[in-house]
Amino acid sequence: MSSELVEAWTLREGERPQRGVVEQLRFLVRYAILAPSTHNSQPWKFRVTDHSVELWSDPSRMLDRIDPDRRQLFMSCGGALANLRIAMRRFGNSDQVLYLPTPKRPDHLATLHLGPPHDTTPQDRSLCDAIIRRRTNRGKYEERALPDPVASQILEISNRPGCWMVELEQGSKREIADIVARADAQQLGDPSFREEFAQWLAPRGSRRRDGIPMAKKDLPSALPLAGTMILRRFDIGAGVAAREHELVTHSPMLTVLGTDEDTPLSWLIAGEAMQDAFLTATHLGVATSYLNQAIEEQELRPRVAAASGRGGFPQLILRWGYGPSDVPPTPRRALEDVLFE
Ligand SMILES: Cc1cc2nc3c(=O)[nH]c(=O)nc-3n(C[C@H](O)[C@H](O)[C@H](O)COP(=O)(O)O)c2cc1C
């Protein structure tokens, strides 16, 4: 892939401007855009003032078929907000957030104010470093379990008021695997899903700075990268589903991240929790990936809730383990394309 498309990942702390609050806040946005997003849709925009960074959603980038309520769009933006907050603390200011500050402008998701000076902690540094190294890793993971302290750190950092992450026992893993397989078959059999998915696949050699790059070496792995085949052969559901079943039952740690409520605010907070957990895992050398199709299919979501053993609303199904270490970064839009005045 052309290096220009993945230039965003070459970010280095030493590049932080020495002067000018606006310049320094713009620099923080370079961390924000490295967050994961559904289909790499990057559904965010930012406005920088001389004392804050505003995070806005970009509804033109929403995914009607798999995300009609914008639940995943909010979580993606929550991930970007987590990056902003971590980078703000890393560079010595406390992070003060106002969520959904303008009720009449629901696309204005949060304002992050430049807070008073903050003593950067080792955790601020390690999480900030991890922003650049994090990848969605769809490969097969080794069977070795995560040591207890590693698993606990990942689970603990994501737990916060109104948001939780639970690890699934083997029996529940099998149940989730069945639900995921069902969701795969449903989605792959649905022309509106295939059409939307096709719009977000970036063929090899493409100059696109968003969407999921199709890389043959990623096959066979989780669903998105089976793209070409899905689009050409409509009977692939069972094959993909079988592969996903194995990924689920063999993942060393499978978790459900959920919330007590199912509102835009809880989705934003879930996105922050997701990203904090990913960065903690990256720091600890643990790979992560998603199996979210089961939550995208409305009628399957209650089954995921039941399997998780918690009430509330499941938001993400995540797989954790030790995986291949050579996952390339995905493209990002340029900073200028996500800033507005
Ligand atoms: C809310 C959310 C849901 C996602 N769901 C899936 C999924 O079900 N399957 C998958 O393979 N990737 C999923 N992804 C990962 C994105 O495809 C990935 O973040 C994007 O392609 C950018 O790649 P990167 O994470 O390596 O930077 C999801 C990401 C987010 C934020």
Helix and strand composition category:
alpha+beta
- The number of helical segments is 12
Give the proportion of residues in helices.
40-55%
* Largest sheet properties: 4 strands, antiparallel
The CATH architecture term of the largest domain is: 3-Layer(aba) Sandwich
Strand content: 15-25%
Kindly report the spatial arrangement of strands forming the biggest sheet.
1-2-4-3
Q: What string, H for helix and E for strand, traces the elements in order?
A: HEEHEEHHEHHEEHHEHEHHEH
First-residue to last-residue Cα separation:
31 Å
Query: CATH superfamily name of the largest domain?
Result: NADH Oxidase
In the CATH hierarchy, the third-tier topology of the largest domain is known as: NADH Oxidase
- Multimeric state: single chain
Dominant shape? globular
Please, could you describe this protein's structure?
This protein is of the alpha+beta class and 341 residues long. It folds into 2 domains: 3-136, NADH Oxidase, CATH 3.40.109; 148-321, NADH Oxidase, CATH 3.40.109.10. The chain contains 12 helices and 10 strands. The chain has helices at residues 21-32, 71-90, 122-133, 148-158, 170-188, 191-199, 227-232, 237-249, 264-283, 293-296, 301-308, 335-338, and strands spanning 44-48, 52-57, 93-99, 108-117, 163-167, 201-202, 212-213, 253-259, 287-290, 313-321. The protein has a 4-stranded antiparallel sheet, covered by helices on one side. Strand 1 (44-48) and strand 2 (52-57) form a beta hairpin. Helix 1 crosses helix 2 and helix 4 runs antiparallel to helix 9. The structure holds flavin mononucleotide. Residues 36-40, 72, 75-76, 79, 135-136, 138, 212, 222-224, 289-293, 330 line the site of flavin mononucleotide (FMN).
